[in-house]
Every structure is written in C-alpha cells, then in structure tokens.
Design brief:
mainly alpha; disordered C terminus; about 70% helix
Length: about 280
C-alpha cells in the first residue's frame, strides 16, 4: 500500500509539473482566466506556473513536501474560489433557464472541472496533513477533508447515470464523439465503482482498499479513453489536460489509500490523528 501511495504522489506531481509548463506555453489564455480585479494578469499566469512546477517537483522527488503540499493546496483552493465559482455564477445569471450550463464548457469547464480542482485541493491537503502531527482538537479537519473527497467521488459516480453522453471516468465537458466499445456499459460500471468507492470511504469500510481500487480504476479508464481519442485523431491540449487531471485525481485516491492503511495509522497513545477519530466524523 505504501508503494501505491507513492505511485499516487507521482501521478499527482506529474499534473502539477505539466500544468506549470502549460502556464508558460499558454500564458495569454491563462491570463484571461485571472480575476479581473487582480492587476498584472500575465504576472499571475507565469507566477502560478512557477509555483505549480516547483510544487510538482518537490512532491516528485520527495523533498520539502511538508512545505510544498499545504502551499499547493491553498493555491488550488484559490482556483475554485476565485475562478470556478464566479464563472458558474456568471453562467447561471446569464442563462437561468438552462441549469445544464453548469455542465458545459463555459471557459473554465463548468462544475465538473470545479469538482476536479476541488478533489485535487483536498488531495493536496490530505497529503500535507498525513505527514504531520495534529492536536486532538484538530483531528476533525483531516476527517472532514476525507469526507469531502468521498462526496466528490459520489457526485462523479452519480453523474454517470444521468449524463451518459459524457466520457467514462471522471466526467468532463467533452462528449463521446469518438468510437468506444460499449460506451454506456463502461459509463455505468465506472459510475458504480466511483459510487461504491466513495460510499465505503464515507462509511470507513476498508477505506484503504476502496480508495486504492477507485484510484486504479480511474487511472485505467482515463488512459483507455484517451487512447481511443488519439486513435480517432482527436487529441488536443484540452483533452490531454482533462486526462492529466483525471490521472491526478486517481493519484489523490491512491495517496488516501496509503494514509488509510491500518499499518500507517498512528498509535492510539500518540496525540496524532487516530482511526477512531476519523471514523466518528
């Protein structure tokens, strides 16, 4: 399980390094997504790219992770609060009669992309807290983060049964406009796997096994569906970024699996996080 968790960290770090590079390659596009009330948009685009790249390298080489992980979590959280939420509010304001605009590509990917970034934020926070000591009166923080991660997985799972036209795996704004065998079957199976995995984590039933299985499933489906896209000559930076995010979410689940494994839980007589504390939230 430790190897699975370390593999998950590498997948998570790969997205951060990739995203850092993309912030430089498409700096003008990234700058357009910076909130209008912030000055020097290009500065924030380049600065964010440097921060993502540095955090990814830190996690990948396993150096200064205790510093990089919480700072990265705060950065990713700012994406959700200052980019995704205002974008969705703008969409609802301008198209209140069509609530499905939240699931469409409106410049930032809609609610699905917001949930992906939320899952990545939670993964970074879990990575930061799993390697540190928590006071007893703050043990609920880690438990709440785990619960939120499980709820995001439940939402992703439920979407597979209502929006079957989207790609199996972690739903995104892209439709299945390429050939894939038994598309709806893959969608339902993936949705069921996400729903079961999220439920087991939420109920604290073999949380390590549930998180590891869910992470491996997400990784497999993401790689498989992207291979079909490439075979259909539909590969693009947008599709690659979506796939990389899916892979990083899979990494987050694997990191959670490593932390949740009984052998990695701290002893009951220490002031750090205890399994019983997590189970009671």
């Amino acid at each position: 399980m430790k190897r699975i968790a370390r593999f998950g960290e590498c997948l998570f770090a790969a997205l951060m390094i990739y995203s850092g590079v993309m912030h430089f390659k498409f700096a003008t596009y990234v700058a357009a997504a910076v909130p209008s009330w912030l000055p020097w948009h290009l500065f924030w685009a380049y600065g964010t790219g440097v921060a993502l790249f540095a955090a990814g390298v830190s996690i990948l080489v396993h150096r200064f992770t205790r510093v990089a992980a919480p700072l990265l979590a705060v950065l990713l959280c700012s994406f959700v609060l200052f980019i995704h939420l205002p974008s969705m509010a703008h969409s609802v304001t301008h198209a209140p009669q069509e609530m499905r605009v939240l699931w469409s590509f409106n410049g930032t990917g809609g609610i699905n992309n917001a949930l992906k970034d939320l899952a990545l934020t939670l993964s970074a926070f879990i990575l930061a807290l799993s390697g540190s000591s928590l006071q007893r009166n703050r043990q609920w923080v880690l438990a709440a983060l785990i619960n939120m991660f499980a709820i995001v997985m439940l939402l992703f799972g439920a979407e597979h049964f209502y929006f079957t036209q989207y790609t199996p795996g972690i739903p995104s704004w892209s439709f299945v406009n390429f050939w894939i065998p038994w598309n709806e079957v893959w969608g339902y199976l993936t949705g069921a796997g996400l729903f079961i995995g999220g439920s087991m984590i939420l109920l604290r039933k073999r949380m390590d096994l549930a998180a590891a299985s869910m992470g491996l499933m997400i990784l497999f489906v993401a790689a498989l569906t992207y291979a079909f896209r490439m075979a259909a000559h539909l590969g693009s930076y947008g599709e690659l970024t979506n796939t990389m995010k899916d892979v990083a979410v899979a990494g987050g689940a694997m990191m959670l699996a490593g932390f949740a494994h009984p052998e990695n839980q701290p002893a009951k007589d220490t002031p750090t996080v205890k399994p019983s504390a997590i189970e009671t939230v």
